[in-house]
Specification:
heterodimer; A: mainly beta; 7-stranded mixed sheet; 4-stranded antiparallel sheet; 11 strands; 58% strand; B: mainly beta; 6-stranded mixed sheet; 10 strands; 0% helix; 50% strand; globular
Chain lengths: 130, 109
């Protein structure tokens, strides 16, 4: 599976950031055994990773509380694309934006343990707000 | 609180062992994942579910956990292991949310 982010690299303050993550080499949809969710993560210059949110193939979403009021993540299973919109951007939104596939798996020992992790990442898309 | 804390930087001599830690209350109930990020590249998953190593990750990478602390150990560090390492887990206050640690820069001397 390969993920590729795309979108405008330069925005002005107050504009809306729009990025697309194209999934190739595999399905964007979960199967009966494997459950996927599609994440957006960003990294400001010289800083750490910041989770933005994720979406399931059924359209269910969860967002970071700090960005929830400005973020919308959507999915198009017919084109294998996940989109990110972040409105009212400021210089603080300048970052590399990554999409990443999340996986939910389970292991049964004396109990059932559920694991959630991001196993495939795109190379990232640089967005500058100026 | 919903935070994961990592030491900002650590150094290790070539061929020696280094242990990176991640602390947070969420780690008492959620399994840690670890990602390696080399300069200018995307992160790569090196440990998931606290102790599991994805296919293709060298055996010198291992994970462990105790209480509110998860650890990533690199046994016999190589020059190519120099990178930033991030821990991640689900927020125990809201299991739908993801947390990342601030990252640890590992320098191989």
């Amino acid at each position: 599976v390969h993920l590729q982010e795309s979108g405008p690299g330069l925005l002005k303050p107050s504009e809306t950031l729009s990025l697309t993550c194209t999934v190739s080499g595999g399905s964007i949809s979960s199967g009966s055994i494997r459950r996927y969710y599609w994440n957006w993560i960003r990294q400001s210059p010289g800083k750490g990773l910041e989770w933005i949110g994720y979406i399931f193939d059924n359209g269910g979403t969860n967002y970071s509380p700090s960005l929830k009021s400005r973020v919308t993540i959507s999915i198009d299973t017919s084109t294998n694309e996940v989109s990110l919109k972040l409105n009212s951007v400021t210089a603080a939104d300048t970052a590399v934006y990554f999409c990443a596939r999340g996986r939910e798996t389970s292991e049964t020992t004396w109990r059932v343990s559920y694991y959630y992790y991001m196993d495939v990442w795109g190379k990232g898309s640089t967005v500058t707000v100026s | 609180s919903s935070e994961l804390t990592q030491d900002p930087a650590v150094s290790v001599a070539l061929g020696q062992t280094v242990k990176i830690t991640c602390q947070g209350d969420s780690l008492r109930r959620s399994y840690a994942n670890w990602y390696q990020q080399k300069s200018g590249q995307a992160p790569v998953l090196v440990i998931y579910g606290e102790v599991h190593r994805p296919s293709g990750i060298p055996a010198r990478f291992s994970g462990s956990s105790s209480g509110n602390t998860a650890s990533l150990t690199i046994a016999g560090a190589q020059a190519e292991d120099e990178a930033d390492y991030y821990c991640n887990c689900r927020d125990s206050n809201d299991r739908h949310l993801e947390l990342f640690g601030g990252g640890t820069k590992v320098t191989v001397l």
